[in-house]
Amino acid sequence: MKTTIKKWGINAEGIGYLHHKPVFIKGALPDEVVSFTLEKEMPRYSIGHLQSILKESPRRRKSPCAYADQCDGCALMHVDYKGQCLMKMQILKQTLAKYAGYRGKINPIIKNESVLGYRNSCKMPVKQVDGKIRLGMYKAESNTFVSIPRCIVHQKSLEQTRQMLESIFNTYSMQAYDFQTESGLRTVVIKEFEEKIQVILVTGQDTLDAEMLKEISQLEQVVSIWQSIKTDNSVDIYGKEMRLLYGQKTMELHLDDLVLQLLPRSFFQLNTRQAYRLYHYVKDLIQPCDVLVEAYSGIGAMSLMLAKKAKKVIGIEYIEDAVQNANENAQRNHLKHVSFVCEDAGKALRDMKETIDALVVDPPRAGLDALMKEVILKKQPNQIVYVSCNPSTLAKDLKQLQEVYQIKSVQPFDMFSQTQHVESVVLMAKKEVK
Ligand SMILES: C[S@@+](CC[C@H](N)C(=O)[O-])C[C@H]1O[C@@H](n2cnc3c(N)ncnc32)[C@H](O)[C@@H]1O
């Protein structure tokens, strides 16, 4: 079968049509003519399997990653950077129009200066492949493990450390996790900030080899090793127990004149440089006010960057370690008017006594929950800045918030180059009552 690809799908598939029904074809790009076989037929769409490209898009390139065909991590490796930015703009525009009815201006995407080697952290599952320990990933929506010998979106030293760790694990005959014996290595998490590296080994009930730990501690830039014991099947990557095996407890990171600390469980944006630009962008949007709240505040980086914009700043976050970091970060930077509460964002906002002038929300991919939206529409802060990493949930949330708010600006950022993901900042102000 043959079709011309008309547009992008949200997961970077090309969308063509067969008898007026959309066909999603992974690997095909807009404007290409492709031949495909039908993989799955649903009532409203079909899934096609790309066979050959009969007319190639000028945006297609040879993938710079040797593992792109096996790894699902970066859906746009075969698209040049101009094409990637066009894809993100189109997806955002299409999604905001479809779900939020917004057809206004979208600013040009703020590009990533380092389109490779930008990721400051990785979380990689571990498996035994041909008797050797391998770090890799699971293919999307499947249990298929793919070992990744080299990843080019990781920061260079992060990636070097990852490869050396894999080799050390094999030297010491470390085993991948076994659910029967509840022992072995499950996941390896590595984070790098300012040329310092934190290693977190998620394992069963293992006592780790002292010589192996010594060798890891001697790797260049490694400043701490943690072990997290996890024997359950919960979605949380870490177990309840987190032991510091070597080095310093927190990682440090500087943004302008702020010093920020991070514990292993605390979230920080994956692309440090773009996060910094995004925080500055949000800072410029916020009008000076009395009370500013940031919901989903992580270690408080954005709240602290926004400190000068309000007489009182309150951050809300439900991970205890992140809140501890955030409050210590506020103290350490002598920002007495900034504080953080550990609570579900919607509940904490509901229970807040203060009149909120400006609200910044930076939720996870699932977007705002029902309580959060209900509370926002009830409390009606004058200004809202919505930072989103998922256009679909952003658009659905905006649809509801537009009962009271008007969208003033939409600014996409490319935080995750080579992938289909797009970060957006939407400024909203209360509609004038006529
Ligand atoms: C996208 S991150 C944003 C973090 C922060 N704004 C930053 O720039 O580093 C989302 C944060 O929301 C937190 N979170 C997720 N669901 C939450 C909830 N229901 N209530 C409070 N915090 C939540 C996560 O732990 C994570 O730190």
Written account of the structure:
- The protein has 434 residues and is an alpha/beta fold.
- It has three domains: 1-60, Beta Barrel (OB fold (Dihydrolipoamide Acetyltransferase, E2P)), CATH 2.40.50; 96-113 and 265-430, 3-Layer(aba) Sandwich (Rossmann fold); 121-253, OB fold (Dihydrolipoamide Acetyltransferase, E2P) (Beta Barrel), CATH 2.40.50.
- It is built from nine helices and 22 strands.
- The chain has helices spanning 81-100, 156-171, 210-217, 272-285, 301-305, 320-332, 345-351, 370-379, 391-401, and strands at residues 2-4, 7-8, 13-18, 21-26, 33-41, 46-55, 121-129, 132-138, 145-147, 185-193, 196-203, 222-229, 241-247, 251-255, 258-262, 289-295, 310-317, 338-342, 358-361, 383-388, 405-413, 423-430.
- The strands form four sheets. Strands 9-8-7-10-11-12-13 form a seven-stranded mixed β-sheet, with helices on one face. Strands 18-17-16-19-20-22-21 form a seven-stranded mixed β-sheet, with helices on both faces. It has a six-stranded mixed β-sheet with strand order 1-5-6-4-3-2.
- β3 and β4 form a beta hairpin.
- The longest helix has 20 residues, at 81-100.
- It is globular and about 75 Å long.
- S-adenosylmethionine binds next to α5 and β17.
